[in-house]
Specification:
Elements (H helix, E strand, L loop, with lengths): L21 E5 L3 H13 L3 E5 L2 H11 L3 E5 L7 H15 L31 E5 L4 H9 L4 E4 L4 H16 L11 E3 L2 E4 L4 E4 L2 E2 L4 H12 L4 E2 L1 H7 L9 H14 L9 E4 L3 E4 L27
Parallel strand pairs: 1-2, 1-3, 3-4, 4-5
Antiparallel strand pairs: 6-7, 7-8, 8-9, 10-12, 11-12
Helix pairs in contact: 1-5, 2-3, 4-8, 6-8
């Protein structure tokens, strides 16, 4: 008696690829906008464009981007005010969706269209600026921008900067080996969940601020010049050192009792910055070993 031939096994279902990251480009110059969106599309991102500040807030509400490329010089609302309102909306409800003025949907009549799911965590912002004054760039960083690029710029460099910001914003350790939370007195930073708490109160940190805090807590008592932090935290070989200065100032405002007289993130004049948990509240112990060699003993005055 012949045996029935078993049917061939069906191939396993393909693993769905991760959806492309959504980038909102806010730029009033049509030529610059076309170049930027073109490069981003070829790099695999899904892009949308807004030509003024009010349109940017509406598109952020409907498009739910993973990152915003934001020009400072815009008609209507300028880029600084757009960034300020995006951050205010995040504090209100945790997403960029509340920033718009038109509610859900695409602004057309009829039933609203389903919006994409909002990206977790603070919305990364990369600013574009033609302004030469450092004060404008510093103000943008103080409002929560993660990076900035000065015009004229290389579109390829912008795409690389965007990729770097997204990787840091979405970084998480492997599930099999979760990194333990770091503690210094009443300050706790959880690398796995990418959130920090002080005295039982969650801290609203941007991706860069959290990375900076995590790096300093992993290296207590070590002095790092601004060049070292720019390399270790931002991954840049060169750049404007005021970026580090502004982020340290913003971080102090969120973790120190008195930011004007910091006790956790202290300045070592002529050398850099040091995380000093022994001077903070509590027992001053941290939960991880250092992950970088000591910085040089001398460096530029921060």
């Amino acid at each position: 008696m012949s045996r029935a031939t078993p049917p061939p096994a069906s191939p396993p279902d393909p693993v769905p690829a991760a959806p492309p990251r959504r980038i909102l480009v806010v730029e009033d110059d049509p030529t610059v906008a076309e170049v930027v969106t073109g490069y981003l599309t070829r790099a695999g991102y899904t892009t949308e464009h807004a030509a003024d500040g009010w349109a940017a807030l509406d598109r952020a509400a409907a498009f739910r981007p993973h990152l915003v490329v934001l020009d400072l010089m815009l008609p209507g609302l300028d880029g600084l005010e757009v960034c300020r309102r995006l951050r205010r909306a995040e504090r209100a409800d945790g997403t960029a969706g509340a920033a718009g003025t038109g509610g859900a949907g695409d602004g057309s009549s009829g039933a609203p269209r389903a919006r994409p799911q909002a990206a977790p965590g603070p919305l990364p912002v990369v600013m574009l600026t033609a302004r030469g004054e450092a004060s404008d760039r510093i103000l943008g960083l103080e409002l929560g921008a993660d990076d900035y690029v000065t015009k004229p710029f290389s579109p390829r460099e912008l795409v690389l900067r965007i990729g770097s910001v997204l990787r840091r914003a979405e970084a998480a350790p492997p599930a099999a080996t979760p990194a333990p939370p770091l503690r210094a007195g009443d300050l706790t930073a959880d690398p796995a969940g990418r959130h920090a708490v002080r005295a039982g109160r969650p801290l609203s940190l941007t991706a860069r601020e959290f990375d900076l805090l995590l790096f300093l807590m992993r290296n207590p008592g070590r002095v790092f010049a601004r060049e070292d932090l720019l390399h270790q935290v931002w991954g840049w070989e060169f750049g404007d050192l005021s970026t580090v200065t502004v982020h340290v100032r913003r971080l102090r405002e969120k973790v120190e009792d008195d930011p004007a007289a910091p006790r956790l993130i202290v300045t070592v004049w002529g050398a850099g910055y040091r995380f000093d948990p022994a001077d903070g509240p509590g027992d001053g112990r941290t939960g991880a070993a250092p992950d970088a060699p000591p910085a040089p003993s001398e460096g530029p005055r921060p």
